[in-house]
Amino acid sequence: MTPLCCRAFIAACRDELDAPKPGNVHVYAAGHRMTVAEFEDSAVAAAGPLCAQGARVGVRIRAAIEATNRAVGTNTNLGIVLLCAPLAAAAERALAAPAAAGGDLRACLTRVLDGLDVADAADAFAAIVQAAPAGLGHAAQHDVFAPPQVTLKEAMTAAADRDLVARQYATAFADVFDLGMPLHVAATARGRDPKLATLAVYLGFLSRFPDSHILRKHGAAAAREVRRTAQRFDALLDETGDPASLFPQLLAWDRSLKAQGLNPGSSADLTVATLFGIRLQSGLPSTHISG
């Protein structure tokens, strides 16, 4: 499992960087005092701990963030790791379970999330504090600076209405499986190259939800405005027969967002999780692939 998982994770991170994602770091432009190389180094550093055979989800999260911090010294991938650790554990379980017994990726992910405990929460909280994401503050309920009293799923469920990453834990990654993956399949079926399929996923998330990273740092009005612009670009990408013709406009918006310090990081995290899930599924026997 570990080599498949590591390759899938690193490839998903690189695929996400290849797309011109407005406001986020990509091969066309760095941003927010972070570079593509830092994200690439982070992916390589985090892959091993994230995919550690038999490790609990919380241990995977904490070890991956510690490895990232040693490699680049900044928070490049907290949301990515929080999303991908349960997927990695689910893929490991899917390979070990007969498909007839519910051994597909999505069913296994549900069982992984239901099996999270307080120790997983403690490890995840420690990782969050170490990564120190922008806008992190104290919370009235399930404060990451205090020892957890609930399981990781319960803590995430309490934050699901204000954080897209937490929402995935509460919904068994419904947005990844029911939105991100179908968007990628549809774009690929239309002959779009990988970076355009990735862009379709990113704009799909950004156009449907106020990005919680922007919401946390800049407030609801800024998140709504970014979402409105994403809806326009999402429609243009869907309608045009020449997607590359949109790149100048996309990159102009990218510069504007970065000049304002607006980073749709949650949408990018969900994009990586989608690409990772697709690659994990492609590496499973066909009888284990979620429908």
Itemize the secondary structure elements and their pairings.
Elements: H1 2-18, H2 36-50, H3 57-72, H4 78-96, H5 105-114, H6 118-131, H7 152-158, H8 164-171, H9 174-189, H10 194-208, H11 212-218, H12 220-239, H13 247-259, H14 265-283
Short description:
With 291 residues, this protein is mainly α. The protein contains 14 helices and no strands.
What do you see in this structure?
With 291 residues, the protein is an all-alpha fold. The protein has one domain: Triphosphoribosyl-dephospho-CoA protein (Orthogonal Bundle), CATH 1.10.4200.10. Helix content is 67%, strand content 0%. It has 14 helices and no strands. The protein has helices spanning 2-18, 36-50, 57-72, 78-96, 105-114, 118-131, 152-158, 164-171, 174-189, 194-208, 212-218, 220-239, 247-259, 265-283. The longest helix has 20 residues, at 220-239. The model has no long low-confidence stretch (mean pLDDT 92).
Text of the CATH class: Mainly Alpha
Looking at the structure, the CATH topology is Triphosphoribosyl-dephospho-CoA protein
State the distance separating the first and last CA atoms. 21 Å
Shape: globular
Number of strands: 0
CATH superfamily: Triphosphoribosyl-dephospho-CoA protein
Q: How many structural domains does the protein architecture include?
A: 1
Sequence stretches where pLDDT stays below 50 over 5 or more residues: none
Q: Output the number of helix runs.
A: 14
Which architecture would the CATH scheme give at its second level? Orthogonal Bundle
Structural class: mainly alpha
| Assembly context of the chains | single chain
Question: What is the ordering of alpha helices and beta strands?
Answer: HHHHHHHHHHHHHH
